[in-house]
Amino acid sequence: MNPILCADSVVKSFRGRRVLTSATLRAVPGEVRVLFGRNGSGKSTLLKIACGWIAADGGAVHFGGRAYSAVHLHVLAAAGLFYLPDHDLLSTAFTVRLQLEMIRELYDGGDVIVAASRLGIREHLDKKTGDLSGGELRRAELAAVLVRRPTCVLADEPYRGIPPKDAEVLTQVFRDLASDGAAVVITGHEVPSLLDVAHHVSWCTSGTTYELGPPAEATRHEAFRREYLGPWSTV
Q1: Are 71 and 62 in contact (CB under 8 A)?
Q2: What pairs with residue 61 in β-bridges?
């Protein structure tokens, strides 16, 4: 199937330091794609460029069959993209319920109670995010994704700092989103969890990206095993 999102041949520098020289990100409907890379390799930068959070120095972004010369997050969001950043998505000033209802109204989204129940946070709806644990907060953010009902999800390090029981919930949600036809791209370093959920693995290194294929093929890639997987090379 053709990608719904493609950020192609992306170039980006910060203060004269080249982070990405020719990197590509593809999001394919019905697939969970995982982007691995060491800290500082540019994988988060690539996601932010693909969603319109920051501008690239070079390259092109295509979404939903349209090419964008200038990419803006609010434009892609209106077209069906959901960007889950590596920092808190929800405000600390309002309850979870109010924020999910705002998303529902803004995007003609799904039922808040259904989404909260599916993520196991129904009893936390009337709390503010500062009263939630890290795992509960991440569940609330995933409830926002379900309410939004996007066609494409870019999630930057969603498994970071959460316990295994919450990781299992996230994995199931990402699988379900893909099964329902959404395109999902995830970054992170939690190798077992990410390989478990992935249909396809990409690797960001030395300013570029490599398409390694399904997890079984990716873990046989010699350079990827040696330079990234390290102690996980036997997974």
Answers
A1: no
A2: 7, 68
What are the pLDDT digits (tens) for 49-72?
999 999 999 999 999 999 987 899
Q: Could you tell me which residues are beta bridge partners of residue 184?
A: 32, 153
Q: Measuring CA to CA, how many Å separate 228 from each of 22, 130, 171, 221?
A: 19, 35, 22, 10
Strands ordered across the beta sheet of 17-27: 66-68, 58-63, 5-14, 17-27, 208-213, 200-205, 32-36, 183-187, 152-155, 81-84
Token pair, residue 85, equals 């950043």
Backbone angle region of 135, left / alpha / beta, with phi > 0 → left and psi within -120 to 50 → alpha: alpha
Contact present, 143 and 72 (Cβ < 8 Å): no
Q: Whole-angstrom Cα distance, residue 144 to residue 163?
A: 20
Instruction: Name the pTM for this structure.
Output: 0.94
